[in-house]
C-alpha cells in the first residue's frame, strides 16, 4: 500500500484524486500516509456498515471532487440530493465517516511534518518548511542572533537565561475533539510513524498494521459528541492531560536541545536548571469574565487538582531516579544528611513499588531520594484529601510546601555528584528532574484570575455606602484614586463581616479569600478586563490587602476595545505617576492586550494596526518610567477575531469559519487597498515594498492569504440559497464580489499568481482535504434547512444496508444516542458531526 501510485489511491477511483497535487518534495510521503489510513478506514466501514454505504461515501466524495474541479453549483445540488435521501441513521454514519477521514488526514499530516523535519536534520538543513522557528533550528536561530545583532555568543546566552515565555492554557468551548479520541489519535499516529520506519521487520509490520486497524476502528466506534457539557473541573482535567502526555517530558528534552545548540555556538555551559525559560499558566477555573460557572469553589478545586497532578507526576519519576543514583561515593555534606535520615527512618509504607524496605546506608543518594519520595506521597495524598473532603489528617509539615523546599535535597544530590567526579551522571536524569521541578513547581501551572472591572466597582461601591462616605460608582477618577491610595497607605480594616453583600459581591470577595487561603505558588496574575483607569488597578490591590492575601498577585490591566487601546498609553502614564504604585511593582508591569473586542469595534485590519501601535507606545511609556514591561497577548487560535452586539467572538468566528466564507478575516482589506491604490497608483509599489520588507505587514497579509485558501464562496452561496431569505441574496452576492476583489488585490500586493504560491506544502495539505470538507458543508447546509423548516420535503430512501440486519441496527443505534433532541431523529447529531468534521478539516474552530 505504501508504494501505491496516486492513481490507485485507496479504493476510491483514480478520477476522484486528480485534483490532489503530487509530491512536493522527494521526502513527501503525505499521499502515502493518507492513502494507507483511508484504505484501512474504508475496509472497516464496509465491515461495519456494508458495501452500499461505503459506495455512498465514495459517491459523495466523487461529487465533491467534481465540484472542486469546476466549481459547478449543480454538483452541490446533486450532492445535496444524495445526502438528504439518507435515513437518519445512515446520515449520521456518512457525516461521522467524513469527519473521521479528516481527522485521519490530520494525523497523516502530523507524521509527514515530523518525518520531513527528521530528514532535514540528518542533512544539516535547519530551515522549517514554513520558515517557522521550531526545535529543529534552535542552533540556526542563535547563530542568526549573533550575526544580525552583532552580539557575542555569551551576550546571547546571558539574555536567554534572563527571559521567560509564559504559555497560558485556556478551555475552548468549541474544542471539537474529545479527550478519548485524542488518545486514540495519538496511538494511530504512533503506529503510522513506526510502519514507515526503515528498520521495521515483516512481523513488526504485520502487528503494527493490525494495531493501526484496531485503533482506527476504536476511534470510529467512539461517540464524537459530548453528551453532557463539561464542568470547569472537567476542562481543567482535559487541559492538564497535555502535561502528562507531552509537556512534562517535552520541557527537559527541549532544554537539552538548547544546551546542545549553545555548545555548538561555543558556550560550554548549560542553561541553569532554575533559569525560567518557559513557564505555564492557565485560565481554566480562573477566568470568571461573564462565566457564572466559575465560582470561588471551582477555583479552589482546580488549584487542588493541579497540585495533586503535579505531585503525581513528580512522584511517578522519583523511583526511576532512585534506580539511577545507586552510587556509594558522595561528599561529606550529603553523607551527614543521609546518615541522619537513615538513623531516623521508619520504613513501614507498603504503597511503594520499589525500595519499600529500609534503604542501606551505603546507598546515600537513595536514602535522600527516599525521603523526597515519602514527602511527595504525603503531598499528593493531602491534596487528594482536601479536594475530596475539604480537610486532611496529614499535617502540612509532612509535605512539601514550597518549591525551594522541594529543590533543596535534589540540589544537594547534584552538588555531591559534581564534587565526587560524577558530573556526567548529575547532568543526566537528575538535571532533567531539577528542570521539571523548577518549571512546574508544586502547582503544575499558575492559575490566572480574570474578572471584569465593573465587578470590583460594585464591591467598592458597597463598601463606601456601608461606610456612609458616598457612592464610589459616582465618584470621579481623581476622587477614587485619592480614597484608594489613602486606604492603601493606612492599616485599618476597611470592612467587617457586617458588610451587606449581594451574591455578586460575595462571589468577588470569596474569590480573594480563596487566593489568600491557598499557597501563593498556585496563582499567577489577576487580570482586569475592560480596564480603563488607574483606579481599576488600585481597587484590586486594595481588595487583596483587605482579604489578607499574603503575597499579592501581580495586577494586569487588559486593554481590548479600540478606544481602550488608544487610551492605554495615557492610562499607563497616570498609573506609573502614582508613587505608591511604582514602589509596589518594583520596576515590573504586565499589560494584556486583547484581540476580540478591538476586532469587533474596528474590523481586523484596523484593530491589528491599533494593536501594533499600542504596543509601541506602551513600551515607550514603560521606558520613560524605568519599568520593565511584559506583554500578554490574548490572541486566540484563529486569524479572525471580534463579534457583533449579540454574539461573542467564539460563536461569531465559528459560524463564518464553518460556512467557508471567513468574513471577519478579510472584510475591509479590499476596500482599504482599493482606496489607497486609487489615490495614487504608485501606492501599489509601496504596498509591495511593505510586504517584502516589513515583517508585521507580511505576516498580516500571509495569514489572510492562508484563510482565502481555506475559503470557498461557492459553498457560502449554497448556505445563502438554502437558509437566507430571497430578498438578501443580492447582498450575499455583493459580499462574494467583494471577496473575489479582495483576494485579487491581496495576490497583487504579495506578488503571487495563485494562493499559497510560496507555501506548496500547505497548499497540498489543504487541497487534499477539500473534497471531504465540501461533503460536510453540503450536509450541514441541508441539515440546517431541515431543522429550520420542518416542512422542507425530502425523499428518504430505505436503509442503504437493509439486507444486513445487524449492520442496519448499528446505524439505528446511533440515532438512539440522542433520545432527547428537540428536532427530528438524527438531525441534531448529523449537524454536530458536520461541525466537528469541518473544524477538523480547516483546523480552526472559533
TrEMBL record:
<dbReference type="GO" id="GO:0015977">
    <property type="term" value="P:carbon fixation"/>
</dbReference>
<dbReference type="InterPro" id="IPR015813">
    <property type="entry name" value="Pyrv/PenolPyrv_kinase-like_dom"/>
</dbReference>
<dbReference type="InterPro" id="IPR021135">
    <property type="entry name" value="PEP_COase"/>
</dbReference>
<keyword id="KW-0963">Cytoplasm</keyword>
<dbReference type="GO" id="GO:0006099">
    <property type="term" value="P:tricarboxylic acid cycle"/>
</dbReference>
<keyword id="KW-0120">Carbon dioxide fixation</keyword>
<comment type="similarity">
    <text>Belongs to the PEPCase type 1 family.</text>
</comment>
<dbReference type="InterPro" id="IPR033129">
    <property type="entry name" value="PEPCASE_His_AS"/>
</dbReference>
<keyword id="KW-0597">Phosphoprotein</keyword>
<dbReference type="GO" id="GO:0009507">
    <property type="term" value="C:chloroplast"/>
</dbReference>
<dbReference type="GO" id="GO:0048366">
    <property type="term" value="P:leaf development"/>
</dbReference>
<keyword id="KW-0456">Lyase</keyword>
<protein>
    <recommendedName>
        <fullName>phosphoenolpyruvate carboxylase</fullName>
        <ecNumber>4.1.1.31</ecNumber>
    </recommendedName>
</protein>
<dbReference type="GO" id="GO:0048046">
    <property type="term" value="C:apoplast"/>
</dbReference>
<dbReference type="Pfam" id="PF00311">
    <property type="entry name" value="PEPcase"/>
</dbReference>
<keyword id="KW-0460">Magnesium</keyword>
<dbReference type="InterPro" id="IPR018129">
    <property type="entry name" value="PEP_COase_Lys_AS"/>
</dbReference>
<comment type="subunit">
    <text>Homotetramer.</text>
</comment>
<feature type="active site">
    <location>
        <position position="600"/>
    </location>
</feature>
<dbReference type="GO" id="GO:0008964">
    <property type="term" value="F:phosphoenolpyruvate carboxylase activity"/>
</dbReference>
<dbReference type="GO" id="GO:0005829">
    <property type="term" value="C:cytosol"/>
</dbReference>
<feature type="active site">
    <location>
        <position position="172"/>
    </location>
</feature>
Amino acid at each position: 500500500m505504501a508504494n501505491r501510485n496516486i492513481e490507485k489511491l485507496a479504493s476510491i477511483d483514480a478520477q476522484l484524486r486528480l485534483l490532489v497535487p503530487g509530491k512536493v518534495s522527494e521526502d513527501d510521503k503525505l499521499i502515502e500516509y493518507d492513502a494507507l489510513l483511508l484504505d484501512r478506514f474504508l475496509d472497516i466501514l464496509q465491515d461495519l456498515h456494508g458495501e452500499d454505504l461505503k459506495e455512498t461515501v465514495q459517491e459523495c466524495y466523487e461529487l465533491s471532487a467534481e465540484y472542486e474541479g469546476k466549481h459547478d453549483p449543480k454538483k452541490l445540488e446533486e450532492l445535496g440530493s444524495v445526502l438528504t435521501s439518507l435515513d437518519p441513521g445512515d446520515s449520521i454514519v456518512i457525516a461521522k465517516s467524513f469527519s473521521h477521514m479528516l481527522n485521519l488526514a490530520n494525523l497523516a499530516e502530523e507524521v509527514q511534518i515530523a518525518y520531513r523535519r527528521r530528514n532535514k536534520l540528518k542533512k544539516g538543513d535547519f530551515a522549517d518548511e514554513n520558515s517557522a522557528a521550531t526545535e529543529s533550528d534552535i542552533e540556526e536561530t542563535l547563530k542568526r542572533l549573533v550575526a544580525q545583532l552583532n552580539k557575542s555568543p555569551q551576550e546571547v546566552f546571558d539574555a536567554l537565561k534572563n527571559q521567560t515565555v509564559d504559555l497560558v492554557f485556556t478551555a475552548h468551548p468549541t474544542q471539537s475533539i474529545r479527550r478519548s479520541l485524542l488518545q486514540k489519535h495519538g496511538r494511530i499516529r504512533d503506529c503510522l510513524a513506526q510502519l514507515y520506519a526503515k528498520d521495521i521487520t515483516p512481523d513488526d509490520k504485520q502487528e503494527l498494521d493490525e494495531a493501526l486497524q484496531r485503533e482506527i476502528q476504536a476511534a470510529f466506534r467512539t461517540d464524537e459528541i459530548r453528551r453532557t457539557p463539561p464542568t470547569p473541573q472537567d476542562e481543567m482535567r482535559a487541559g492538564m492531560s497535555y502535561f502528562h502526555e507531552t509537556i512534562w517530558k517535552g520541557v527537559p528534552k527541549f532544554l537539552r536541545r538548547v544546551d546542545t545548540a549553545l555548545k555548538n555556538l561555543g558556550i560550554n555551559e548549560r542553561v541553569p536548571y532554575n533559569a525560567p525559560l518557559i513557564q505555564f499558566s492557565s485560565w481554566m477555573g480562573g477566568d470568571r469574565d461573564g462565566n457564572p460557572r466559575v465560582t470561588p469553589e471551582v477555583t479552589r478545586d482546580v488549584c487542588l487538582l493541579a497540585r495533586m497532578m503535579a505531585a503525581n507526576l513528580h512522584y511517578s519519576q522519583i523511583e526511576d531516579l532512585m534506580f539511577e543514583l545507586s552510587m556509594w561515593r558522595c561528599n561529606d555534606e550529603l553523607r551527614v544528611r543521609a546518615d541522619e535520615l537513615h538513623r531516623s527512618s521508619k520504613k513501614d509504607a507498603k504503597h511503594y513499588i520499589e525500595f519499600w524496605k529500609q534503604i542501606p546506608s551505603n546507598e546515600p543518594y537513595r536514602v535522600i531520594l527516599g525521603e523526597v519520595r515519602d514527602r511527595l506521597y504525603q503531598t499528593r495524598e493531602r491534596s487528594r484529601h482536601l479536594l475530596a473532603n475539604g480537610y486532611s489528617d496529614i499535617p502540612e509539615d509532612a509535605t512539601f510546601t514550597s518549591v525551594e523546599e522541594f529543590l533543596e535535597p535534589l540540589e544537594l544530590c547534584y552538588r555531591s555528584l559534581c564534587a565526587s567526579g560524577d558530573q556526567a551522571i548529575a547532568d543526566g536524569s537528575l538535571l532533567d528532574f531539577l528542570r521539571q521541578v523548577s518549571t512546574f513547581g508544586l502547582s503544575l501551572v499558575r492559575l490566572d484570575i480574570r474578572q471584569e472591572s465593573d465587578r470590583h466597582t460594585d464591591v467598592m461601591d458597597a463598601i463606601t455606602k456601608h461606610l456612609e462616605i458616598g457612592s464610589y460608582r459616582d465618584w470621579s477618577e481623581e476622587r477614587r484614586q485619592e480614597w484608594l491610595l489613602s486606604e492603601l497607605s493606612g492599616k485599618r480594616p476597611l470592612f467587617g463581616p457586617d458588610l451587606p453583600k449581594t451574591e455578586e459581591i460575595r462571589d468577588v470577595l470569596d474569590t480573594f479569600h480563596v487566593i489568600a487561603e491557598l499557597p501563593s505558588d498556585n496563582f499567577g496574575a489577576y487580570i482586569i478586563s475592560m480596564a480603563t483607569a488607574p483606579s481599576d488597578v488600585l481597587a484590586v490591590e486594595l481588595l487583596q490587602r483587605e482579604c489578607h492575601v499574603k503575597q499579592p498577585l501581580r495586577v494586569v490591566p487588559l486593554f481590548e476595545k479600540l478606544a481602550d487601546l488608544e487610551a492605554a498609553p495615557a492610562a499607563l502614564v497616570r498609573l506609573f505617576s502614582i508613587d505608591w504604585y511604582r514602589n509596589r511593582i518594583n520596576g515590573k508591569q504586565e499589560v494584556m492586550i486583547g484581540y476580540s473586542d478591538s476586532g469587533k469595534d474596528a474590523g481586523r485590519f484596523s484593530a491589528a494596526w491599533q494593536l501594533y501601535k499600542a504596543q509601541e507606545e506602551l513600551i515607550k511609556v514603560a521606558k520613560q518610567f524605568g519599568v520593565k514591561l511584559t506583554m500578554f497577548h490574548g490572541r486566540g487560535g484563529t486569524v479572525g477575531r471580534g463579534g457583533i452586539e449579540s454574539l461573542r467572538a467564539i460563536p461569531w468566528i465559528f459560524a463564518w469559519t464553518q460556512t467557508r466564507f471567513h468574513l471577519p478575516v478579510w472584510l475591509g482589506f479590499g476596500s482599504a487597498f482599493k482606496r489607497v491604490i486609487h489615490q495614487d497608483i504608485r501606492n501599489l509599489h509601496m504596498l509591495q515594498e511593505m510586504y517584502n520588507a516589513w515583517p508585521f505587514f507580511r505576516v498580516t497579509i500571509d495569514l489572510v492569504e492562508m484563510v482565502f485558501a481555506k475559503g470557498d464562496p461557492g459553498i457560502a452561496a449554497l448556505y445563502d440559497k438554502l437558509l437566507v431569505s430571497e430578498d438578501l441574496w443580492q447582498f450575499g452576492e455583493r459580499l462574494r464580489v467583494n471577496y473575489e476583489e479582495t483576494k485579487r488585490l491581496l495576490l497583487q500586493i504579495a506578488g503571487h499568481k495563485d494562493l499559497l504560491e510560496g507555501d506548496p506544502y500547505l497548499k497540498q495539505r489543504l487541497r487534499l482535504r477539500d473534497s471531504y470538507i465540501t461533503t460536510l458543508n453540503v450536509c450541514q447546509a441541508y441539515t440546517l434547512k431541515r431543522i429550520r423548516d420542518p416542512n422542507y420535503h425530502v425523499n428518504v430512501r430505505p436503509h442503504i444496508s437493509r439486507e444486513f440486519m445487524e449492520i442496519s441496527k448499528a446505524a439505528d443505534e446511533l440515532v438512539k444516542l440522542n433520545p432527547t433532541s428537540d428536532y427530528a431523529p438524527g438531525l441534531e447529531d448529523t449537524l454536530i458531526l458536520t461541525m466537528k468534521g469541518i473544524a477538523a478539516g480547516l483546523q480552526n474552530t472559533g
